[in-house]
Amino acid sequence: MLTNFHTHTWMCHHATGRPIDYIRAAMEAGENNPNKDTFSALGISDHCPFPGDTEYNWIRVKMSCDQLPEYVADIKAAAEYAPFPVYMGFECEWDPQFLSWYKDELKAKWGAQYLILGAHWFIDKYGDHAYIPNCDNRTDLHTYFDETIEAIGSGCFDILAHPDLPMAGIDEWDDDLKACFSDLIDAAIDANVPLEVNGEGMNRPQKMTKNGLRYQYPFLEFWELAKSKGATFMANADAHAPERLLSNTKQARGFATELGIECIQNPFNNLK
Ligand SMILES: [Zn+2]
Ligand SMILES: [Zn+2]
What we know:
- The protein is an alpha/beta fold.
- The chain has helices spanning 19-32, 68-79, 99-109, 138-153, 175-191, 220-229, 245-259, and strands at 2-4, 39-47, 86-92, 114-117, 121-123, 129-131, 159-160, 195-198, 207-209, 212-214, 233-236.
- The two termini are 20 Å apart.
- One zinc ion binds next to loops.
């Protein structure tokens, strides 16, 4: 049985497919290989908008607030066709000024059943939302970790997507990084937030380092550290196209299996 809770839609401007297309892709996977590739749950989690759509250049990779009703309705309508539970969520960036947006709007008003923290940005010294893979200094990197750890502790988020995303911009693992990631893993354990092995990262162009080619993420040393600390894990596709749902999910799961990491199938089993 497979599950995936990290799925995008056409609304974010850098993915394709509507919720129904992902449900169909999940159903077809099971029909083609019923023993191995049957999905038992699917979560749709497109990049969330922020109030006023004021995220400057980030607005280009998100739906706008006025698309929220359509997003919610589309998922509800599509879920009727699914032979498995379909969950409605969002993938969110962290900015503490939006604390009430996550809780009172996305969850309470719009009915999101879960929120993924996909920390792509950090708030830099100019107050801008800077993309972490482009970070070129340790001061900013430490800011990223401080902010992401604050986000994990906020109680707003149910899954931490690609926790090793900073390694997309860094060549080598070192003691400082190990300490930063160690604090991040501890925060996730304390908050009971599973860490996500991300299938999409395995399909990004690989990174050349002095030790050879590797994935931008998942980054092996991070996962070995998280395993040794007793974190909880999920494997998700981060699908940006319906045809990538099955392959990304299986790749993420394969990475986890190879490392001897056990993944939670469905953390939302108790939700209706
Ligand atoms: Zn995306
Ligand atoms: Zn994503």
